[in-house]
Amino acid sequence: MTEHRSPDARFRTSLLEENDGPATNPTDNRTMGEIIAARFSRRGFLRGSLAVSAIAATVSPLALISADEARAAESSAFAFDELEAGIDDKHHVAPGYDADVLLRWGDPLFADSPDFDPTKQSAQAQSRQFGYNNDYVGYLPIDGSAEHGMLVVNHEYTNPHLMFPGIVKIVEKDGKKSAEVAPLSKEQVDVEMAAHGGTIVEIRKDAGKWQVVRDGKLNRRITSSTEMALSGPVAGHDRVKTNADPSGTKVFGTFNNCAGGVTPWGTYVMAEENIHGYFSGELPADHKEAANYKRLGIPEGAYEWAAHYDRFDLAKEPNEANRFGWIVEVDVNDPTSTPRKRTAMGRFKHEGAESIVAKDGRVVFYLGDDERFDYVYKFVTKAAFNPNDHAANKDLLDDGTLHVAKFAEDGSVEWLPIVFGQGPLTAENGFTGQADVLIETRRSADLLGATKMDRPEDIQPNAVNGKVYVMLTNNSKRKADQVDAANPRAENAFGHIIEISEDGGDFTAAKGKWEVLLKCGDPSVADIGATFSTATTANGWFGMPDNCAVDSAGRLWVATDGQGPKATGRTDGLWAVDTEGSARATSKLFFRVPIGAEMCGPLFAPDDQTAFVAVQHPGDGGEDWEAFGRPSYYEDLSTRWPDFKPDMPVRPSVVAITKQGGGKIAV
């Protein structure tokens, strides 16, 4: 008889993704909720024109006249017929558009790749196939083409209950069903490890439809076993040396790669996020890394890798976890190149690394730390980007300054440099150099007094209007005494979006201004306090903003994570959000995912004629098991998207959206 683990209301990897564990920030730094509340208090409203706009955004929709709705609709930057929100087992796109599945978990990527067989999975096969739980999607043109390029895709994590047959046993007690999951074999763990990482694959548009080029000379899979190099200030430091790597410079693999980015010089960056779930074992309470790991929630043990590989057991390799939580850079033009973990960019639960070239040629990367009560960062390279010399940009990310954001009630934001020897980042607080400061980026930011945020996720700079958009997914842990009547967002279940304007339009600036673009949720429920425009329909509002994209016209698109039967009565999806003029804060639903899925990506091709989106963990029950009426697992799935075949499990996939007849999207 197969031994099963104890029943749980949710599968452990799903719980890890939801990231709803106890907050690990021990400081009394002010939260963003407190600052918003103070800024938009009754007295704050009387201070000037900025406050007037805030009042307008919080008036009940019923109090506004229909002429406002008409003006907003007429001035919207988006032209498409809105999709109806809802929940079912399929994906849906706005009328007049096609949404074609381009890449599915297990699809062959090379001429010699085996076909996908879910009953005969192996690490060897998976390493030649498209990985699991696609998240970030990037596009690098070949010869400047918007119809022929390299697609880069992160594979964040795995859901074994959706991947492997025969490991789930359903038990019922008091009328409620829960799951017992058998321990994974070494072979299954090896498949998981091969399904993580990233994919680099050539794609081409032919007769209006995108195709994978399986014999592309640059095609590559990156996995949890790919050899990588630590570079920058932490490389070679004692705290990253292990038995297998006494040099402290060579790491095997990357995992939990959530959002990411592509650089102006044409490389691919992968952000390591929820690394805590991969480590097990215990450290003595007095171990030198104990406090460091506690601040990151390490170990959490959602995965069973430590049962088969000592490096994931803290008792055997106490420094291994310090080698994860970084930004990884990959040269897509050389499939034999060694990816590099760029330690100058800090170590935390990275959500993305989107960049922009500043006025002086330096490159600025915006970075979110995806946990409740953690921080917003930006990294500014020391040297300028040279568009005419690829080699000159090779190591730009090894030298620069990481900053953390401190938001003030007056609408200003200050970027605090995280530099050894400055302020509290000294030997008196246990730091011996910049390597310590970066290994413990969270503690460094704690000491600097950074503002505690509501799960900072994707952050997008906008080259067209000069603004920066920060997705704050939610924070159910915020207490009622941290807000007031002007900001009724205790237990902030639906999140909000902040817009930053850097001083002088300079993305390297040390200061800027901030404004709340949207407080999310259902605007028809007064207690939620959502601030969508009154032109936003019942289909147009959303909660849990996560990933986002800015197209070449400077328009904002927002993807969500966490909607479902229980939370909102609708699935996750992609919404077009106006940011300018009378239509500001108007939102329209463009695409929605199948039941149980999260909306990741999105990405617009350079000509804005294709939107690539990543449908992640379709069919996963998560916290909506009660709404589903049963668990969803390999043998009894809530959807078999995208194949809808009885012998095929649900498969995370990248979808290419195009306008029927051609042309730019939403124009």
Automatic annotation (TrEMBL):
SUPFAM superfamilies, per the entry: Calcium-dependent phosphotriesterase
Pfam families: PhoX (PF05787)
TM spans (from-to): none
Region (Disordered): 1-30
Compositional bias per record (Basic and acidic residues), positions renumbered to this chain: 1-11
Name used for this protein in its record: PhoX family phosphatase
